[in-house]
Amino acid sequence: TxxxxxxxxxxxxxxxLLANHRLDVAAEEAKQRLEEAEExxxxxxxxxxxxxxxxxxxxxxxxxxxxxxxxxxxxxxxxASSFTSAHAAFKRRQNEVFVDLARRYxx
Length: 107
Prior knowledge:
There is one protein chain. The chain is mainly alpha-helical. It contains three helices and no strands.
């Protein structure tokens, strides 16, 4: 907006001061708009992350369809006493891998 200073003449230093002030105000407004846009972007990314996590949980729950409960309720179908010592050692190592995977990816 233009402002009238009446009949009074401005000194060149006053003109420079006014011009610099307007530039400072414009820069501050641009900085504020950028910060607001960045905040909107952060919020949108957070919403997207939550949405994807919820969808992933929904897919996992739908795919399970009670499979884990059925497997656990059936008990262990293998008789470990019939394993050779080499196979028993393999099964121990395999179970350790499963435990590590579960800890890493399930919590």
